[in-house]
Amino acid sequence: MAGLGAGTPSGDRLLIVQRASGSEPLVLSFSGGKDSVLALAALRRGHAFRVTRLLTTVTREYRRIAMHGVRETLLDRQAEALGLPLDKVYLTAQGGQDEYEDRMRERLLGYEAQGIGRVAFGDLFLEDIRVYRERQLALVGMQGEFPLWGQETRRLALDFIDQGFEAVVVCVDTEQLAAEFAGRPFDRSFLSDLPLEVDPAGERGEFHTFVHAGPLFSAPVGFTGGDRVRREGRFEYYDLRPHPDPTDPRSG
Which is the most buried residue in 32, 136, 140, 200, by most CB within 10 A? Predict the structure, then answer.
């Protein structure tokens, strides 16, 4: 997969930078999971858009990626390895839809004032989600891009694996998938074991992942597996602990 990062010949990197120099800037909505990373890869392969920043929602009290439950420290290291600035929207744990929309609107208006008119998403096929995103963007004069839209999800999952990306399943909705799938590597064995009714990409929220290595990464994001935590009586989280970094007081 073409892009900036380890394993890419220097000549290819220069070619990609030259293509991006005249392209339109956009922000990528980023969860740290496989679809976000695949969307970044797809955008870097093309030359119509230039990803200038990543945007992630973080739960303020827990300092973790919303929904995925990954520690903010790992998110920061992931963005650094991908070579992109990271913006965060902090949401309270008990905040509702109004808080989310208000905070996102503030952030998007800031982008619009900087001349950035588009936000990209890694959505695959849920039409209601796409319509909602496009409606919210239109309120601030922006547009959405969906570089993975309509792709067959099993093929997309296999491409992710075959191209050398590495991810771990960090959250499972136990109403859709057994809790034991949390903590497993996202690999061919994982896909083979999924029940037929579960989407291979987890597009309906069956599971979420954290990508820690691959073609776009300058270096792997180091972690060790931690505790399992069940929240809301439903969501099984597999807590990843970042490898210690003496320069980062949040490590561990």
Answer: 32
Distance in Å from the first CA to the final CA of the chain: 32
Segment 54-77, tens digit of pLDDT: 999 999 999 999 999 999 999 999
- Contact by Cβ (8 Å): 211, 35: no
Give the whole-angstrom CA distance, residue 195 versus residue 212: 25
C-beta separation of 223 from 240 below 8 A: yes
Sorted by where each begins, the domain ranges of the chain are: 10-242
User: Could you give the CA distance from residue 117 to residue 92 in angstroms, rounded to a whole number?
Assistant: 27
Cβ neighbours of residue 17 closer than 8 Å, sequence gap 6 or more? 4
Give 87-136 pLDDT, tens digit per residue.
999 999 998 999 999 999 999 999 999 999 999 999 999 999 999 999 99
* DSSP H/E element including 173: strand 166-173
CATH T-level fold of 10-242: Rossmann fold (3.40.50)
How many beta carbons lie within 10 A of that of residue 169, not counting itself? 23
